[in-house]
Design goal:
The complex is a heterodimer. Chain A is built from 6 helices and 2 strands, in the order H-H-H-H-E-E-H-H. Chain A is mainly alpha-helical. The N terminus and C terminus of chain A are likely disordered. The termini of chain B are far apart. The N terminus of chain B is likely disordered.
């Protein structure tokens, strides 16, 4: 049936000292692994995309060069954008499953079972 | 060969088109009724009880995202302006990497129902929520108007309804159906409509793609040769036909590209879909599914666009009622006669219906949850009141959409979709990114960025060539000309400006935000602690 007490689980759990979690070595590792992947990879993808847009805008002769049959550089580069998008997606999922999810799960379990990081414990 | 008797006549059988669309409506209605029996709480109504799987949600995202502009618009653009039409497809697809890498999971972990939940998490609730709800409503309104006006144009093409009154009637029917779906089905019903539509759209486009390739001996190069031969213009294979005409056009395309790639991950109706799954991991899976479906679909559009140029001919398409939008339906008629045309027409209508439903529930949730429940009732609405307000808002938005759609019918409002992306990228994305990744970010920074981005995007578009200055602009007159901003898309100015304002507002802010809230948000966003759970039924 409908769950009317939406915040029930957060109210019954002991208050969490998020400051302590944030400063813990484990969390810092998760944070840096996340940032170390998403920032450079996204930056590279955006550079590659804008390079493509600029080529389409300003390098007509290069883009119009036929490669095989009537298929030219422009069409191949467009399809290459699709391929790299698929590839980066698959790469990120693998990375997240292997490098991010296990730590995130560990921290979450620790907090939710109240093993560490509860506010009472921190003030004790 | 095809012969068109009069400009308003449709090829194929209008009654067949209506019958197939009627069957789609009947089947989805039954599913919506069955799915909506448990719509009790706000979590059920706005977020479908967070019970969809990643695959289901990914299909629904594709259904939500692949609007009529994507299907009819891009196929038509490729058929007529050649390669430049394909540039849109690439921008629309690459944009999903921003959603995948930066936004989807973190948003699912920290929010509840709306974009404002995340933006106001560690900042001052009231002003930030009002700002985020404002930008949400503006983006949804522009997008909605474009879809409804598009419905009018589609009608003249597919059903042979040429007169204004007939088109107004069809827009009203589409709007009324949409209200019914969203009112009864809530997010669950909306999601199922989007899933069914996505499957039909991608399958339909897939069948046509294979068919076109088969006619050309499964040789893509032969298809391109035939397209060139039919149009007599080898330039359709090269970039530049549309965006290479002048230096301004080139910068304009760059501006559009920026808005497309940064706007997607900040579209409120896309963001809201991430709340319909039980965990961040499922949100990630949703985006992966969406990327594959959307990517494959856009590759289809390349074949269909050149296929339409080769088999129907650019001149016939340009002269047909509906102009470039008629490329895909005419290609369907050429391939499979009235039956395939009927199927593709029904899919096109289903597309408008599904996208409009998604926009409406997003706007209604934002008003009911952010403005009514959180600001007016200070987070303590009477039990059931929030959903009641949301349902009433749905009816009001539906009526506004119908009236707006009838008013905009026949107007040149195609720029509204691109504008919606530009507003989302300017008003929403900087604040989303800063609040997730920049510790020091403050309320003042958020407000400057959101209102600054929103205002600059809209003001620039008002003074742009799409509103005034030529026969093809919205005001349709050369004598009224206040187009002092040369570009048709404001993104290249308004997006960097909004990022800058977010930074400036923060560093000039004397007040500091609560560091405990920042800790909580960062920990929750990355680990999923305390994230909203799926409801039990």
């Amino acid at each position: 049936m409908g769950n009317d007490a939406l915040s029930a689980e957060t109210e019954t759990a002991p208050p969490v000292d998020y400051r302590a979690v944030q400063q813990s070595e484990e969390f810092q590792r998760l944070r840096s692994r996340h940032r170390r992947f998403v920032f450079p990879v996204l930056a590279a993808c955006l550079v590659w995309y804008f390079a493509y847009v600029l080529l389409a805008g300003y390098a007509h002769d290069f883009m119009s060069t036929p490669v095989f049959g009537s298929v030219n550089v422009a069409i191949l580069l467009g399809l290459a954008q699709v391929v790299t998008t698929f590839a980066v997606t698959t790469w990120y999922v693998r990375y997240a499953n292997k490098e991010l999810d296990p730590i995130a799960e560990e921290i979450r379990d620790e907090i939710e079972t109240g093993a560490t990081f509860t506010a009472e414990e921190a003030t004790r | 060969m095809l012969h068109f008797e009069a400009a308003s006549a449709s090829p194929g059988e209008p009654w067949l088109n209506i019958a197939i669309f009627g069957a789609f409506v009947a089947i989805t209605m039954i599913i919506v009724f069955r799915a909506s029996r448990n719509n009790k709480t706000a979590a059920d109504y706005y977020a479908a009880g967070r019970s969809f799987t990643g695959g289901q949600n990914g299909s629904a995202i594709a259904g939500d995202y692949l609007s009529a502009a994507s299907f009819l618009g891009i196929v038509g653009a490729i058929a007529i302006t050649g390669y430049d039409g394909f540039l849109y497809s690439i921008g629309f697809l690459v944009a999903w990497l921003v959603a995948l890498l930066l936004v989807a999971e973190l948003l699912r972990n920290t929010g509840k129902f709306t974009m404002a939940d995340v933006l106001s998490f560690r900042l001052k609730q009231k002003p930030v929520r009002i700002a985020a709800a404002t930008t949400t409503l503006v983006v949804c309104f522009f997008y909605l108007l474009a879809q409804m006006a598009g419905a009018g144009g589609l009608v003249s093409l597919l059903l042979g309804v040429g007169d204004q009154l007939g088109q107004a009637l069809v827009i009203t029917v589409v709007g009324a159906l949409m209200i019914l779906y969203v009112l009864i089905g809530g997010m669950k019903g909306t999601t199922w409509v989007q899933i069914i539509k996505a499957i039909l759209l991608i399958a339909g486009a897939g069948v046509m793609t294979v068919w076109v390739l088969a006619i050309n001996g499964f040789n893509f190069s032969t298809l391109l040769d035939n397209a060139v031969a039919a149009t007599g213009n080898p330039e359709i294979l090269n970039p530049g036909l549309k965006y290479g005409v002048s230096e301004i056009a080139k910068v304009d395309f760059l501006s559009l590209g920026l808005a497309l790639v940064l706007g997607t991950a900040a579209l409120p109706h896309v963001l809201m879909r991430f709340y319909t799954v039980p965990t961040a991991k499922e949100a990630r899976k949703s985006v992966v599914w969406a990327i594959w479906l959307i990517g494959i679909f856009y590759v289809f559009t390349l074949v269909l666009g050149y296929g339409a140029a080769a088999l129907v001919g650019a001149d016939v398409i340009a002269a047909a009622p509906g102009g470039p939008n008629s490329a895909a339906p005419l290609l369907a008629f050429e391939l499979g006669g009235p039956l395939l045309l009927g199927l593709i027409s029904a899919i096109a209508f289903a597309t408008i219906l599904a996208v409009v439903a998604g926009l409406t529930i997003t706007a209604a949730a934002s008003f009911a949850h952010d403005i009514y429940a959180s600001v007016v009732k200070k987070g303590k609405p009477a039990p059931g009141a929030e959903v009641k307000v949301a349902r009433r808002t749905v009816v009001i938005i539906g009526i506004v959409a119908i009236i707006g759609g009838i008013g905009a019918n026949g107007q040149n409002v195609a720029f509204l979709v691109a504008l919606a992306f530009a507003v989302a990228a300017s008003a929403n994305l900087p604040t989303i990114v800063y609040s997730l990744f920049w510790k020091r970010f403050t309320t003042q920074g958020a407000l400057w960025s959101m209102y600054g981005g929103l205002a600059s995007a809209i003001i620039l578009i008002i003074f742009s060539p799409v509103v005034s200055g030529s026969e093809t602009s919205m005001l349709k007159s050369e004598s009224i000309d206040f187009a002092i901003f040369p570009l048709s898309n404001p993104g290249i100015v308004s997006i960097p400006l909004a990022f800058f304002l977010g930074w400036l507002g923060t560093v000039l802010d004397k007040k500091k935000e609560d560091p405990a809230k920042q800790s909580e948000m960062e920990v929750r966003s990355l680990t999923g602690v305390g994230a909203e759970k799926a409801t039990q039924h």
